[in-house]
From TrEMBL:
Belongs to the class-II aminoacyl-tRNA synthetase family. The keyword Ligase applies. The lineage of its organism: Bacteria, Bacillati, Bacillota, Bacilli, Bacillales. This is Asparagine--tRNA ligase. It catalyses: tRNA(Asn) + L-asparagine + ATP = L-asparaginyl-tRNA(Asn) + AMP + diphosphate + H(+). GO terms for biological process: asparaginyl-tRNA aminoacylation. PANTHER family: ASPARAGINE--TRNA LIGASE, MITOCHONDRIAL-RELATED, ASPARTYL/LYSYL-TRNA SYNTHETASE.
Length: 430
């Protein structure tokens, strides 16, 4: 029976057969070292000439990068290997010989690698990033399932913008106007009124002409929404959720973090509760740091978020932003209506905002007022207004950007490496 690399730890001293690809190799006169991968991990296969015969040894020496194989050998422990095991190869069978694989072990430029993203995903570091992404997704479902949330899937095609912006991808929906979703939040509010605590996980789209290392055109968001919950209670869910993700990645992705040379000590510090500062305090902090141009009422950019994060070794909540720079649905602070009950969670180490959330307006008259102020179409948003008309309750929610979170956990510089096939301003291939 064939085994995977991930399974070999259970077969020490036994002979196994596995399907694999050759990632790399080196050889001397009497030994060939094959770096093998099978999708579940990487392992070194050692081919000793004296133990396999001339035919198998010559095959091992001449085999080319990314050739697919069946490999038979004995599993042995190896403390020198990051994986902890290696394979003493007995037999090799070529399935398909790869010729002139374009991504060689030498250095390649980013654009070249992005043009060959379908092949770049095979590399050890890209494999590690995707495994960390997968663990965050797995832990997300685990966290919300354990805390009484139900997963609800909002539509991707919508008739209106979630946040009233113009940065939307427009399409025709038969004889109507439609847009690719920039957030599932409005629909998640409807779901929360039916199920109490819900979350979604899906793709979102922003037609934002940005080339920064933090932006993608298509990205994935986790968007929980909670009925009978206020702003402070939502912050507690957010910090517990992020802490849970960090702990899960540290527990289950040690090999991947080591492959990426990630400083795990910085991640190990991430535990709730997180520090909080108000928008007012953030403006003062920035001015003290030399950002004399920032004025109250202006939104923060990437340099501002990085400067704020440098004052903390944990993620930090920035709360109570001015109402005029936030979305129409955010609830004003009853004690100070010019600011809203919201928060952005800024990751440390310069990774920027990973969560945006707020308590939502639950008052029907105030929401009608917001419709008028933001010139929202009564036809397109009538259903959203009715959520306040029929049994309105205090409710709150947030959205976590998956790719920025993966970038932070992995320690990679650009979010383009945190999604299998990134969509960027000038990239729709492959």
């Amino acid at each position: 029976m064939k085994k995977t690399i991930r399974e070999v730890k259970d077969y020490v001293g036994k002979e196994v057969k596995m399907g694999a690809w050759l990632a790399n190799k080196r050889s001397s006169g009497k030994i060939a070292f094959l770096q093998l991968r099978d999708g579940t991990g990487f392992i070194q296969g050692v081919v000793v000439k004296a133990e396999v015969g001339e035919e198998v040894f010559q095959l091992a020496k001449n085999i080319t990068q990314e050739t697919s194989l069946y490999v038979t050998g004995t599993v042995v422990e190896d403390t020198r290997s990051p994986f902890g095991y290696e394979l003493q190869v007995k037999e090799l069978e070529v399935i398909h010989a790869a010729v002139d694989f374009p991504i060689t072990p030498k250095e390649h430029g980013t654009e070249f690698l992005m043009d060959h993203r379908h092949l770049w995903l095979r590399s050890k570091k890209q494999h590690a990033v995707m495994k960390i992404r997968n663990e965050i997704i797995r832990a997300t479902y685990e966290f919300f399932n354990e805390n009484g949330f139900i997963k609800i899937d909002p539509p991707i095609l919508t008739g209106a913008a979630a946040e009233g912006t113009t940065e939307l991808f427009h399409t025709k929906y038969f004889d109507e106007e439609a847009y690719l979703s920039q957030s599932g939040q409005l629909y998640m509010e409807a779901a929360a009124m039916a199920f109490g605590k819900v979350f979604s996980f899906g793709p979102t789209f922003r037609a934002e002409k940005s080339k920064t290392r933090r932006h993608l055109i298509e990205f994935w968001m986790i968007e929980p929404e909670m009925a009978f919950m206020n702003h402070e209670e939502s912050l507690q869910v957010q910090e517990n959720y992020v802490s849970y993700l960090v702990a899960s990645v540290l527990k289950n992705c040690q090999l991947e973090l080591n492959t990426l040379d990630r400083d795990v000590e910085k991640l190990a510090k991430i535990k709730a509760p997180f520090p909080r500062i108000t928008y007012d305090e953030a403006v003062t902090l920035l001015q003290e740091k030399g950002f004399d141009d920032i004025k109250w009422g202006e939104d923060f950019g990437a340099p501002h978020e990085t400067a704020i994060a440098e004052s903390f070794d944990m993620p930090v909540f920035i709360t109570h932003y001015p109402a005029n720079i936030k979305a129409f649905y955010m609830k004003p602070d009853p004690e100070r209506p010019e600011v809203v009950l919201c928060a952005d969670l800024i990751a440390p180490e310069g990774y920027g905002e990973i969560i945006g959330g707020s308590q939502r307006i639950d008052d029907l008259d105030l929401m009608k007022q917001r419709y008028e102020e933001h010139q929202l179409s009564g036809d397109a948003y009538q259903w959203y207004l009715e959520l306040r008309q029929y049994g309105s309750v205090p409710h709150a929610g947030f959205g976590l950007g998956l790719e920025r979170t993966v970038a932070w956990f992995s320690g990679v510089e650009h979010v383009r490496e945190t999604i299998p096939f990134p969509r960027l301003l000038n990239r729709l291939y492959p």
